[in-house]
Design a protein that fits this description.
about 250 residues; Glycerol-3-phosphate (1)-acyltransferase; 8 helices; 1-acylglycerol-3-phosphate O-acyltransferase activity; transmembrane helix; acyltransferase; transmembrane
């Protein structure tokens, strides 16, 4: 794909992603007005993700969905190398609430929607991080799962190697006594790189749901071991798609 075509393709993708969101925005506003309806935002997210990727010609491949019980709650944890990771969870098997960094709230329109329907967190403040986690657990209620990026943002300086995981996702899972589902997003960073002026590449968007890890009976002393288990699971998933990534 030459640079001129890639720039035109990136422009087309931006128009499609933004255009569909703006069409859906009034519906998001209606949901925002009624907290009991917030979980329905998931279906708008799914429509947005499915329609946008279809229109720009990016195919999707979901693996391991059969491992997920759609009637249960989970904490989904994935690697985070691209803004496309947020859109990807529109394909989650069940309704979800996101925890995202505070800067997302500054994005016009999208930021307002995200901050009202999901949870933003200031990672630099321990107090804010704790409060955000409690808000996220409350927003889950009894019918939504939680999506968290344990790296805390796009912090890796050596993609596709991951940055160190933070504790929040694992504390939430243990507090709620619900399973953690490691999720590998192996190629989003290639499709939409984390750059100042990224050029989008057409490539299959893959999403791998690994075996849920139970937390029944665990307590906060088990956070480090659970965190390490999830890290290694996602890391193996990345390594299977990128052999140059040396798994240790």
């Amino acid at each position: 794909m030459n640079k001129t075509f890639q720039r035109l393709y990136t422009l087309w993708c931006a128009i499609v992603f933004a255009g569909i969101f703006l069409i859906l925005f009034p519906f998001f506003l209606v949901l925002i007005m009624f907290p009991k309806w917030h979980h329905h935002s998931f279906y708008l997210n799914r429509f947005w993700a499915w329609t946008a990727l279809k229109l720009v010609g990016i195919p999707t491949k979901l693996q391991g969905v059969e491992r997920i019980d759609k009637t249960k709650q989970y904490v989904y944890c994935s690697n985070h190398f691209s803004l496309l990771d947020i859109l990807s969870f529109g394909f989650a098997p069940n309704p979800v609430v996101y925890v995202g960094k505070e800067s997302l709230a500054k994005i016009p329109f999208f930021g307002f929607m995200f901050s009202k329907l999901h949870v933003t967190v200031n990672r630099e403040s321990m107090k804010n991080s704790y409060q955000a986690l409690q808000r996220a657990i409350a927003k889950m209620g009894e019918n939504r799962s939680l999506v968290m990026y344990p790296e805390g943002g796009i912090y890796s300086k050596d993609i596709p190697r991951m940055a160190r995981f933070k504790d929040g996702a694992f504390r939430a899972a243990i507090e709620k006594q619900i399973p953690v589902v490691p999720v590998t997003l192996p190629d989003n960073w290639i499709i939409l790189p984390d750059e100042r002026a990224p050029l989008i590449r057409r490539r299959k968007m893959k999403m791998i749901f690994h075996e849920p890890i139970p937390t029944k009976g665990l307590n906060m002393k088990d956070v480090p071991a659970l965190k390490e288990q999830v890290f290694k699971t996602i890391e193996r998933g990345i390594n299977q798609h990128h052999p140059i990534y040396e798994y240790k």
